[in-house]
Amino acid sequence: MIRIERLGFTYPDGTRALDNISLNFEDGSSTGIIGANGAGKSTLVNHLNGYFLPMEGSVSIDGMNFCKNNLDRIHQQVGLLFQNPDDQLFMTRLYDDIAFGPENLGMNPGEIKTLAEETLLDLNLWELKDKSPSHLSQGQKRFAAFATILVMDPQVIVMDEPTSDLDPKNRRKLINLVRSLHKTRITVSHDLDFIWDTCEHVCIMNKGRIAAEGPARQILSQRDLLESNNLELPLRLQGM
Ligand SMILES: Nc1ncnc2c1ncn2[C@@H]1O[C@H](COP(=O)(O)OP(=O)(O)O)[C@@H](O)[C@H]1O
Ligand SMILES: [Mg+2]
């Protein structure tokens, strides 16, 4: 389980981005984090894989504290899908991007090959394995970035705006992929229909705090609550 306790964060320019956040993510749970621009979502996400270490309060996974000495283990247990896939893919051949994580863990070449090939096949990326990631379409890049995370088999997957660059067909593919994963999932998104389809729980963030949390469909169908946090009903509920 991931436990966040009284987490606070202030940027060097004095912006208070997180203020006294306490949240628990149970094993196997799926949580959507929603909120208007500037609410603090990305700052929170950056604390979930050790990119930022807690300045105030704490973050832990199965009792292991997020601190400098544990960074390797944190990265192994929490996979972060960046908002922009270009930040995740940096090799000249897709295969090498997929193999990079396992290589870094010091696995033997046979294991790495098996894992990388399985992951490419699972995500329907096999035909693209020798292409340069920079030549892939936005949708292909999104699934390629996902593959670099899944190949590591993390316990927790954190996704920052995973649908922002997807067409409807790829968005549907991503919904099916995400729903098939038996992992703890934390998703930040403005796509409240995606959250509706993939998350059991929802937290609304506003000005660095948790403004509301609860069962996803209960929170996502409260127009007044959403509007008071500068959000709108999911499209599927608009016009009802
Ligand atoms: N590097 C930074 N330096 C100063 N302020 C920042 C920085 N990054 C984000 N902020 C501020 O922190 C607050 C939360 O930002 P962010 O976590 O990016 O929100 P969200 O992802 O919900 O849009 C905002 O007021 C934003 O302007
Ligand atoms: Mg953000």
List the helices and strands and how they pair.
Elements: E1 2-10, E2 16-25, E3 30-34, H1 41-48, E4 56-61, E5 64-65, H2 71-77, E6 78-81, H3 94-104, H4 109-122, H5 138-150, E7 156-160, H6 168-180, E8 184-188, H7 192-198, E9 201-206, E10 209-215, H8 216-220, H9 223-228
Parallel strand pairs: 3-8, 3-9, 6-7, 7-8
Antiparallel strand pairs: 1-2, 1-4, 4-5, 9-10
Bound molecules: adenosine-5'-diphosphate and magnesium ion.
Residues 41-42 line the site of magnesium ion.
Characteristics:
binds magnesium ion, 10 strands, single chain, four-stranded antiparallel β-sheet, binds adenosine-5'-diphosphate, six-stranded mixed β-sheet, 35% helix, 240 residues, Rossmann fold, alpha/beta
Walkthrough of the structure:
The strands form two sheets. This protein has a six-stranded mixed beta sheet, sandwiched between helices. It has one domain: P-loop containing nucleotide triphosphate hydrolases (Rossmann fold, 3-Layer(aba) Sandwich). The mean pLDDT is 95. It starts with a strand and ends in a 12-residue tail after the last helix. It is globular. It has nine helices and ten strands. The protein is an alpha/beta fold. Strand 7, helix 6 and strand 8 form a beta-alpha-beta unit. Bound molecules: adenosine-5'-diphosphate and magnesium ion. The site of adenosine-5'-diphosphate has 12 residues, from helix 1.
